Amino acid sequence: MTKLTTTPAKPGVATFSRLESEVRSYCRSFPTVFKTARNAVLTDQDGRDYIDFLAGCASLNYGHNDPDMKAALVEYIASDGVTHGLDMFTEAKETFLRTFDEVILKPRGLDYRMMFQGPTGANAVEAALKLARKKTGRDNVVAFTNGYHGVTVGALSATGNGGQRAAARSQLSSVSRMPYDGFHGDGVDSAQMLDDMLSDTSSGIDAPAAILLECIQGEGGLNVASKPFLRKLEEIARKHDALLIIDDIQAGCGRSGDFFAFEFAGIKPDIVTMAKSLSGYGLPFSMILMKPEHDVFGPAEHNGTFRGNNHAFVTATAALEKFWRTDVFQKSVEERVAYLTERLSGIAAKAGEDFRLKGRGMMQGIDTGSGELASAICEAGFERGLIIETSGSSNEIVKVLAPLTIEMETFEKGLDILAESFEAVLRAPQAIAAE
């Protein structure tokens, strides 16, 4: 069927088309020039407001320009606080380390060392894989269908997306791909399949250094790992002397409803990768958490010029104190999760029996069965003042990643726009049928 007409770009966008690389992506879906932002609302140069259901792809769990984080950062900068210090000791780093331990780790019974590397999620994954391989002396890593771990070469080896993998000219190796929970349907135990493969010396899968996965596959289509699956993977990792690595980059920092997406399963991964909303303010910042016995890198053995963003330490500490010192914020997130589930279930039911709800926590969406259809719905949303994107192997999922702090009135308005967008696309004469 004919795809809906693409929203025309505004005049200011011409500068980007002329001077910026063709690799740009999100901006193609939202062809306007944004100027300001506050919590869950972006405002463009013309003064038009857009409700943000993308939130920096879950980098802004606490919304845009949180006033308390902003005040802490401005005060730090104004007082000539250290901006760049390599990995040297700074007051900002010490405060973050102590606060993260007190507010997040100890209450959950977790004993982890923190390691700072380059500032992106892919940097964290690269460091985790390198650490696991050094610790175990093995090369192979088990990753899963539809997983997304970044597009640097090491991380891309563990990423499932075919289009992204095709962009790498070098060989993507040392990873064995296994089916994620539910990949073969409800009747197949994917964890048992992995155990069987690793237990058979003729399976062709080398003993792994690590088992790497997301608890909620953000880019892969909002597939959710169940408690039994995660618990069994932890057992399998112990049985086969592999490290269990949880990629909590997109699903972490409260997005799942808990601070860590693995908490609900009661497991304690060997390594956890974190980034995106870790800084709280959208600043580049990543780290890995590792059990102390896995802290085997020597000084500068894993290096990087920007392995400790002091401005991010300041805002991250402010976020921990404001949102996680008590359970008030988490309870407010639970209320938003319940409302989101109710609204998306209603939209899916009205759209038809082929549409279904996917995801967990504040990381949910609707499977439309068609990438063209989902993209058309997101485009219709943008025309009505909503920033929302797709996910999934064919971009078939309309995915909601609203800030966890979104005001309920704004949340309701954004979901109303989403419902209108579904209706507008599905009733249009040129509507794209689900594949």
Task: Give structural attributes.
single chain; 435 residues; alpha/beta; seven-stranded mixed beta sheet; four-stranded mixed beta sheet; 14 helices; 17 strands; disordered N terminus
Explain the overall architecture.
- 47% of the residues are buried.
- Helix 4 runs antiparallel to helix 11.
- By secondary structure, the protein is of the alpha/beta class.
- It has a seven-stranded mixed sheet, with helices on both faces.
- The radius of gyration is 22 Å and the shape is globular.
- Helices cover 37% and strands 15% of the residues.
Short description, anyone?
It contains 14 helices and 17 strands. It has helices spanning 14-19, 26-29, 55-58, 67-78, 91-105, 121-136, 153-158, 162-166, 190-199, 227-239, 310-324, 328-351, 371-383, 408-427, and strands at 34-38, 41-44, 49-52, 113-116, 141-144, 175-178, 210-213, 216-217, 223-224, 243-247, 271-274, 287-290, 356-360, 363-367, 386-387, 389-391, 397-400.
Mean pLDDT: 94
Largest sheet: 7 strands, mixed
In percent terms, what proportion of residues is strand? 5-15%
Number of helices: 14
Shape type: globular
Give the spatial strand order of the biggest sheet: 4-12-11-10-7-5-6
Class derived from helix and strand content? alpha/beta
Helix content: 25-40%
Radius of gyration: 22 Å
Distance linking N and C termini: 11 Å
Spans where pLDDT lies below 50 across 5 or more residues: 1-5
Number of strands: 17
